[in-house]
Every structure is written in C-alpha cells, then in structure tokens.
C-alpha cells in the first residue's frame, strides 16, 4: 500500500499522537477506534501501525509523555531554598504547567483505568515520583517546624487534587488572570500547611 501523499514519519507520527490525544479526551479511549484516528490524521488505518503497535501503546505513550514532560519541566525550575519558597514555587508551577495541557491532564486522570497492568504500574511510578517532590517539601517544612501537617501523604494528594482542579474551570480571558489564580491558590495551599 502506498504512503499517503505528504506523509512523513517526523510529521505523521506527532499528528497521530495529537489526533489520539484529542479523540481520547473528547470521546474516551474505549470509544475511539484506530480507524477514527487514521481518518483524523488523513492516512489509511493500516498506516497507523507504522507509528504505533496498537491503541494501548498509543495511550501509554501519551500518558508517559505527559509525565516525562512534567518531571523534566519541574527539574528545570529554579531552585528555592526554604520549604515555604519551594512549596510556593511548586504550587505555581503545577497550575501553569497543567493549564497549558488540558487534554493531556484529562486523559492522564480519566484513562488510567484503560492501561494494562504493566503500563499502569509504570505510569503510577512516574506519578509517585512527582508526588514525592511535593511530599519531600512538606516533610522538610514539618521537620523544620514551618509546616504543621498531620499526614504528609494525604496532604500531598489533597494539594495536587486541588491544584489540578483549576483545569476544570479556569479559562483565559475570564474574571481572573493566571497570576491572580496562582496567588489565590498559593494562599489556600499555604493556609493548609501552616
């Protein structure tokens, strides 16, 4: 079968991932077929297998790519000295990073259940690494007497859930600017731990 005109691996591969991300976010992983993804990209259904072994691999690659990007971006953030400053920086980073990727965030939470056990374990390990950064900040703050946290693990999960929730309601150009949202959420996070 001939390659579709204009189809190149460095162009089509990313287009396959973008189409899958969009379709999974709109309709859910289970409801989307490889044929739908191919149609969105403009290639024959069989041609998709040049870019991914199967739909499960595609979902895994999207979720893993999101977590890899998240951990890499967090590692690139400027270092802060005190637990207070580190917590503020984490809060603001989490909001900014996730607001720029609403579809990736949505499927990262909603489609975990559709991963094979092996793939689920790998994504969960990456999620724990990210959560571990926040939990370490909370432990350091608690140990230095700056934060008063009864259970650092539960507090970590609660803060991440609260920060990720911004994606469900925030819209650029709305009543609040992004810096205002960050400031409000930082104030709530700060009050949670002090």
From TrEMBL:
GO terms for molecular function: DNA-binding transcription factor activity; transcription cis-regulatory region binding. Gene3D superfamilies: Tetracycline Repressor, domain 2. Residues 33-52 bind DNA. Pfam families: TetR_C_24, TetR_N. Residues 10-70 form the HTH tetR-type domain. The keyword DNA-binding applies. InterPro entries: Homeodomain-like_sf, HTH-type_TetR-like_transc_reg, HTH_TetR, KstR2_TetR_C, Tet_transcr_reg_TetR-rel_C_sf. Keywords: DNA-binding. Signal peptide: none annotated. SUPFAM superfamilies: Homeodomain-like (SSF46689), Tetracyclin repressor-like, C-terminal domain (SSF48498). The keyword Hydrolase does not apply. This is TetR family transcriptional regulator.
